Hints:
By secondary structure, chain A is of the alpha/beta class. Chain A contains 11 helices and 13 strands.
Amino acid sequence: MTVPATVIEARGLRKAFGATIALDGVNLHVEEGRILGLIGPNGAGKSTALNAILGLTQYEGELKVLGFNPWTERDQLLRDVCFISDVAVLPRWLRVSQAVDYVAGVHPRFDRAKAEALLAKTSIHRTSKVRELSKGMVTQLHLALVMAIDAKLLVLDEPTLGLDILYRKQFYDSLLNDYFDRRRTIVVTTHQVEEIQHVLTDLMFIDRGHVVLDCSMEEVEARYIEITVNPEQVAAARALKPMYERQGFGRSILLFDHADRNQLAALGEVRTPGIADLFVAVMGSRAGQAQGASL
Amino acid sequence: MSTSANAVPNSSVGGGITPAAMSKMQLFYWSVRRELWEYRSIYIAPLAAAGVFLFGFLFSLIHLPSRVEGISLHDQQRIVLVGPYDMAAGLIMVTALIVAVFYCLDALYGERRDRSILFWKSLPVSDLTTVLAKAFIPIVFLQLLSWAITSATQLIMLLLSSAVLAASGQSVGILWSQVSFFQMSFMLLYHLLTVHALWYAPVYCWLLLVSAWARRAPFLWAILPPLAIGVVEKVAFNTLYFGNFIGYRLTGGMEVMGSSAPNRLPIDPGMEITPGHFLASPGLWLGLTVAAAFLYAAARIRRSRGPM
């Protein structure tokens, strides 16, 4: 086993739009074969970070993607990077067959047979125009095109926005089963966090231009514990300094960072928190305490 | 889980060898094809103009034998016979010009408006290649296309006229001697390439630049600022340098490409062409330099522009 190569390396990444600071000194290190979820509230700087990685926007600070400077070496970078920005960007006048022809014409790493095979699994007609397809089918088409490109890095910015749950599920299943092979790297942002929990290998929370959580899913499991306690145990549990507490079905649910698992097990049911709850907890404690939940 | 089709890419990844990029020509070729997929009016509009003209011409053929009979030699004969051919050329040319203007104004604006720029930018085609492909459409493609369509239209007109004259027992010779098809076709090509392609290049490129830059209403941004400069100059200094400069750009090409008889179109076979004079004119080279600068600026602007 060789040391995994670094795919994205950012140091002190900064971007301001006038007086608004979208990214304020973000550090990022993503290795080959990881699936990183970039989670944050609206306006947190997720899309700005992705745009900087894709060479779509200028930035301050150091950034290397696959060894390239994304802003000045974008043309070379794009041979190895693919992205789906959101579902609506395929031009509406484009025919399915034209889309395949065009990508085959301009992309040296496009495998036409694979795209055809992926499209054959859907009900998309080759002669249809994008405007005639449903939103879900447009995503299927875009995903088929992107999955047929042998890229090293795939960036997905809200790829399932506006899709129904069946298409969303299918999207990630397809990505994991037919595309991801532990040598590719995927960076994804989404608001539907529960759906990607089982997909991710790494998790990053970003808020107002700052990274507030950056760890692997194994670390999340080792570090964060959620317990459900009955009212009589609440006081004892609170004494252990939970980072967040909420109510559910008449019982209290408390979320701990770096707590003793055995000690907690005595008080109630112990489990690993969901990303959504962890997100709310980290953001909440960040709002409450000045120093932030984790750095 | 994994069908045989899906197993293909794994073998080709190893070693991290990057396959050579597509050749520049191929990227350019596909970029031009995509323009023709998107803007079908590029070829539909001139074809429709030709079709409409031919439809009208069919009816005029009824009077053709009597008209040929009624006129005697001399210059008038030529005008009566050649007039419709010049009209066909003029109509298709004007149509192509209108198409070119609206194409240029939308070429870099439409992709931002419908957000598809994010899709195009996700593929390894540089901004410069894209902008050059878009400039190729009005400067080269549309001119050659309108030449081909006009020539085909004129040939059909000539053949139809010949058939009508022959059927009415009149001589076809007089028609063919007056309407010199090949000379007419050559003059048209010369006119299109000098005036419509090279001389107007900075105009198309200005429109492309505005199209890349404007956040809304590219048409107004393309027209109003130059107009405002002209008005301010007139009011402030009572001079018309800027207005004359723009006017020279729009009409000057016809002066330097050759000289035709008064009241004749600058595609008349009888005109005297002056390609040497045209190529030596500073206006041409100044225009081409400005056009190149506009295109470069358009590519730079497209680079940092996202969807609106």
